[in-house]
Amino acid sequence: MRPVRTLTEALAEDTLLLDGGLSNQLEAQGCDLSGGLWSARLLADAPAQILAAHRAYARAGAQVLIGASYQATFEGFARRGTGRREAGDLMARSVALARAAAEEADHEVWVAASVGPYGAHLADGSEYRGRYGLPPGALERFHRPRIEALAAAGPDVLALETVPDAEEAHALLEAAEGCGVPVWLSYTVANGRTRAGQDLAEAFAVAAGRRGVAAVGVNCCDPPEAGAALAVAAAVTGRPGVVYPNSGEHWDPVARAWHGAVAFDSAPVHSWRAAGARLVGGCCRVGPDRIAALAPLLRRPP
User: Boundaries of each Hcy-binding domain copy (predicted)?
Assistant: First the structure.
């Protein structure tokens, strides 16, 4: 169902349920995500699989579907031999597929276009380190064309997500300035700091006072990290919080495997809401079953 409210209007009234990890749902459907483009490859090779994954999350009750553009970049598609115009069309397809699933749902569903960090297109795990060693302005120049392409496709919000450091957050916000679509900014954090080791208050300060920022928070982090980070984000920016941690397992980019125990459950939801969260869901290894378990909790008063 196409929403009658803007996302910003909805966040002023409700806490919305995000979807979970797109990649794990695609893998559960039998998709091969090997290669540098990861799930973005399926925009060209198997778009019906992406649509099916979005439908699975909509059936689970998700009110915001995040498109398959996290790893979609002009540079990444060029390495595959995809021209610039076709690459832009594939990015637009990521929004269209999420929108198609949203409009089939029996409840209001918004669409977020994913804008992953620079390190994601390198496919070497550097999005969990940041500090890429690029000259000033390079990150903004990298992100601006894809942000423009995704914004032109008409999503309800741009998800500037899994951002490892404040320098890249600043570049993303600058690149999104004036794009005509609201954004949320979501850091990946560890040990109470950004993945690049920066103080969270200083990191969240880059979003303070910026028009068009609908929410600020964290994703793709250990669940126990989320509450404290949300509290900092709310105190520094005064914006609604967004939180979608991963399962608690850890990705080894060398072995290309997940390790550790699952720590994601519904218990912290009330504390997340108390800390200001208005967008709540899951990231890597959090599937439709866990998203469905969150749905009734978000229907209750905080």
Answer: 4-298
